[in-house]
Structure to design on (926 residues):
């Protein structure tokens, strides 16, 4: 997908006078979502035996942790999930979309964001700026059922700094162990 | 050079002779220098961590004193300009004392710079060829050049004049006049370059002002000659050096004009910053009235402004300055006042608030205070030594063996304006 | 905060070996050596280190010897095997950075990732990145705060992390009297830690509060040392010299992203090659509206803030 000229394989080493290539462009890999979903595959684990109830209702038995709070139109599971093939999502026109390509579903409404994302302007790309960049699909950061911006616990301001600046008074020092908020493993795909 | 050896020997003898008061003075300076030396050793061992400097306020009392001292050094020319450019003779006989002050002030400048370096052991990186000098891009590189150049110029003039007279000869104009004129421009240059050091930083609104160089010169020409007035009175009373009232009055006129100009320029700066009240006025507000509850410098700067104003009033009011005691007090106020306003009063607010809006206040640590006091004492010591050598030569008391002890012109620059009264009397 | 995790900070000496018990003596010798110039014997610091030339005058052989010496010093003092390299700028690459002001939540993970990657002192604590908590409705940094704590983003605020802007017309580079700091061909502004004299004029010149001075001996535990080091970037620094963000050149010149970007949970940070029209950084500049901090200072930074 994400159009990107293929990086020309082996890259520059340290030798200063070695001939180097013209700028080349990063290849993008999107982190697959499905290995991160505990209940996947939905069909294999439950829904091959248990047909989903399409009626809109309050969920009491299953999926009680899911609170659907995503805009005015998105009011029920089947808006995105394919009820007879629950390992897939679907577009409004009915096209089936695998979970790993969930961004295609999001893109239907959030077109501008999606365009930013394909350009690398929105969302997080890590790995290599030159060779293979690793990008996250929308649900990695945004809970599709309740996509409101979450809060983060901030790490403390540097407490043992020479001058504490305006934040005088001690803060407990915490060793910086930056962890990713989105627990995406760095496996790649696509 | 046998003559030069004799010169050094005579100089050595001159500086160890003196009254108990003289020894007391040396002991006083020595005690401060010892304290400063110990503090310097401590700082070298432990690094600049022993200062109260921080990334937000990376320069403090050392650079503040340095800036002030550059002004003192530059002010020496205020004894030379009237004499040689306006052919006004009042200061003719005392101009050598200004040159000596310049040399002492430059020693202090170098002392403060070395104290401020994080790696003084790498001073050789500044040297030509073996080092790597960012000239002409870096204004600091310019400053290194002009300050050392000024030291060479003044060192040469002073040594040439004194050594020539020591040998009983009349200094030749062609040997020192060109250098003297170069020194006049150079003096303006050192203080302008030092001002550019600050005003050339586009990111520090408080310093980024075209008024700064002229303000620097005005305050230098107020503080330097004020100090010289006191020094001349001391030399006249203690060493029987003939200083005319006309000379003192000419200096008073200079400091009066310079101080008024300095106050006017400072007031202009304050108006330009405070009246429109742009975001760039934060530093000035911090300095004058405090910012967000931080106001460490407010009493400090107002003390400076009051001292400057008091000095200016005395300098222009005859009943006040005609009394020597009041005049000395006013001169001392001018020196201290300028030291406050263009020392820490200029350097510290430039960093407050920081370029990201943080407010970290600063006042010197005990080590910084001790080192600064030590460098001051060192400067005082150097000036005392130079006077002990220079004054007897001027008076004709110190001569090469076999040369008659008569004054040569009694003025440093070998002219024909000698005094008739051959003031004799040992250096006290 | 329990001190178990922090532990007492031993002065593990960096690069030029000043600290710990024997170093007091060493420093003393050094001071003495500097004072008496010719008479001092070769002390532990070594003459070759003292008279080491400016980075740009070093031959490949010099560099090899210096890197080996520095690695040996760390091995001797901290018992850590580090690898010092000197990755060179890549042809056709000019690095730039962009930061999404709309997405940043001010969690400071970038700050700590940076400290970890770049071996900055833990006590006194040194962070290259400063996160400003800005007031909504204003872009004035003087109305910002840096000491906020707890859950972020906080009501009424947005966040603006600031680090070295790697300016095209860098005031720090111009200010340095000895050329100890300069912009590399790929735009990264570096410091030669063995050449800096510690005058701090660059720090006064910088409008971004991007430069940091080692007033004290930098300290960090042996276990905290990142052994993959660049000579001009994250190797252990001595006392009395300047340091700063180097866009993690030890990573970025090998094709990786800087540590701060990797740590960002919001994807606010964008980095890449300005000369590559398809790079993220070019896409940001072309499709978004950018804001340049202190643009009036004329520094022409390679660091852009954007909204989106």
């Amino acid at each position: 997908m994400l159009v990107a000229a293929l990086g020309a394989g082996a890259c520059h080493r340290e030798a200063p006078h070695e001939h180097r290539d013209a700028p080349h462009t990063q290849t993008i890999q999107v982190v697959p979502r499905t290995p991160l979903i505990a209940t996947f595959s939905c069909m294999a684990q439950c829904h091959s035996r248990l047909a989903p109830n399409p009626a809109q209702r309050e969920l009491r038995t299953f999926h009680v942790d899911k609170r659907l709070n995503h805009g005015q139109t998105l009011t029920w599971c089947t808006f995105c999930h394919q009820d007879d093939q629950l390992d897939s999502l679907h577009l409004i026109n009915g096209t089936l979309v695998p979970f790993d390509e969930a961004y295609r579903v999001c893109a239907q409404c959030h077109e501008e964001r999606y365009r930013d994302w394909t350009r690398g302007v929105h969302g997080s790309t890590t790995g290599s700026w030159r060779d293979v960049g690793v990008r996250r699909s929308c649900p990695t950061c945004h809970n599709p059922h309740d996509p409101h911006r979450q809060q983060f616990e901030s790490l403390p301001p540097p407490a043992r700094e020479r001058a504490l600046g305006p934040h005088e008074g001690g803060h407990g020092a915490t060793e910086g162990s930056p962890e990713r908020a989105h627990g995406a493993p760095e496996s790649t795909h696509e | 050079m046998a003559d030069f050896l004799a010169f050094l020997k005579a100089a050595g003898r001159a500086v160890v002779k003196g009254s108990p008061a003289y020894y007391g003075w040396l002991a006083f300076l020595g005690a401060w220098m010892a304290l400063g030396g110990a503090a310097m050793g401590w700082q070298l061992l432990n690094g600049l961590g022993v200062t109260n400097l921080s990334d937000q306020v990376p320069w403090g009392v050392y650079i503040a004193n340095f800036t002030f001292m550059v002004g003192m050094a530059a002010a020496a020319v205020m004894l030379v300009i009237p004499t040689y450019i306006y052919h006004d003779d009042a200061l003719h006989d005392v101009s050598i004392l200004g040159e000596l002050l310049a040399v002492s002030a430059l020693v202090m400048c170098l002392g403060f710079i070395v104290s401020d370096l994080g790696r003084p052991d790498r001073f050789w990186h500044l040297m030509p060829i073996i080092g790597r000098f960012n000239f002409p891009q870096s204004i600091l590189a310019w400053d290194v050049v002009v300050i050392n150049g000024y030291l060479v110029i003044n060192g040469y003039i002073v040594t040439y004049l004194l050594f020539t007279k020591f040998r009983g000869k009349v200094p030749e104009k062609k040997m020192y006049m060109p250098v003297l004129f170069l020194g006049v421009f150079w003096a303006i240059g050192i203080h302008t370059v030092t001002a550019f050091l600050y005003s050339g930083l586009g990111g520090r609104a408080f310093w980024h002002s075209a008024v700064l160089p002229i303000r620097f010169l005005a305050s230098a020409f107020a503080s330097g000659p004020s100090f010289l007035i006191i020094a001349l009175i001391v030399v006249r009373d203690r060493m029987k050096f003939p200083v005319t009232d006309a000379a003192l009055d000419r200096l008073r006129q200079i400091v009066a004009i310079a101080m008024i100009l300095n106050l006017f320029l400072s007031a202009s700066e304050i108006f330009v910053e405070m009246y429109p009240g742009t975001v760039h006025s934060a530093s000035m507000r911090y300095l004058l009235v405090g910012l967000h509850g931080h106001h460490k410098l407010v009493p400090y700067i107002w003390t400076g402004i009051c001292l400057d104003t008091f000095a200016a009033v005395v300098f222009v009011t005859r009943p006040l300055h005609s009394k020597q005691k009041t005049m000395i007090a006013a001169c001392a106020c001018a020196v201290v006042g300028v030291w406050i306003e263009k020392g820490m009063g200029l350097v510290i607010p430039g960093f407050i608030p920081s370029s990201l809006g943080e407010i970290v206040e600063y006042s010197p640590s005990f080590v910084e205070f001790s080192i600064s006091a030590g460098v001051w004492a060192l400067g005082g010591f150097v000036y005392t030594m130079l006077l002990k050598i220079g004054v007897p030569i001027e008076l004709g008391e110190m001569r090469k063996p076999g040369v008659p002890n008569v004054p040569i012109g009694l003025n440093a620059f070998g002219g024909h304006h000698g005094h008739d009264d051959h003031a004799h009397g040992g250096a006290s | 905060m329990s001190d178990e995790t922090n532990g007492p900070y031993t002065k593990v000496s960096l690069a030029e070996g000043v600290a710990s018990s024997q170093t007091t003596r060493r420093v003393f010798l050094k001071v003495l050596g500097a004072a008496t110039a010719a008479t001092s014997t070769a002390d532990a610091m070594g003459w070759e280190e003292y008279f080491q030339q400016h980075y740009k005058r070093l031959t490949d052989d010099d560099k090899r010897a210096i890197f080996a010496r520095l690695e040996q010093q760390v091995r001797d003092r901290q018992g850590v095997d580090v690898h010092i390299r000197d990755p060179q700028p890549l042809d056709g690459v000019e690095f730039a950075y962009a930061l999404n002001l709309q997405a940043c939540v001010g969690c400071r993970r970038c700050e700590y990732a940076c400290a970890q990657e770049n071996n900055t002192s833990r006590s006194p604590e040194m962070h290259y990145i400063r996160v400003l908590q800005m007031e909504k409705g204003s872009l004035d940094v003087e109305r910002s705060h840096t000491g906020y704590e707890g859950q972020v983003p906080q009501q009424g605020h947005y966040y603006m992390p600031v680090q070295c802007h790697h300016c095209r017309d860098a005031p720090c580079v111009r200010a340095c009297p000895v050329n100890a700091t300069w912009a590399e061909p790929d735009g990264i502004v570096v410091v030669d830690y063995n050449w800096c004299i510690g005058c701090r004029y660059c720090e006064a010149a910088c409008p971004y509060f991007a430069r940091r001075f080692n007033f004290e001996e930098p300290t960090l535990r042996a276990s905290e040392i990142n052994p993959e080091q660049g000579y001009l970037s994250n190797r252990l620094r001595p006392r009395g010299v300047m340091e700063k963000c180097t866009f993690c050149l030890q990573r970025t010149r090998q094709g990786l992203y800087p540590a701060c970007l990797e740590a960002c949970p919001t994807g606010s940070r964008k980095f890449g090659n300005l000369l590559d029209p398809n790079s993220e950084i070019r896409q940001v500049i072309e499709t978004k509206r950018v804001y340049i901090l202190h643009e009036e200072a004329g520094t022409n930074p390679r660091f852009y803030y954007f909204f989106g």
Remarks:
- The two ends of chain B are 31 Å apart (CA to CA).
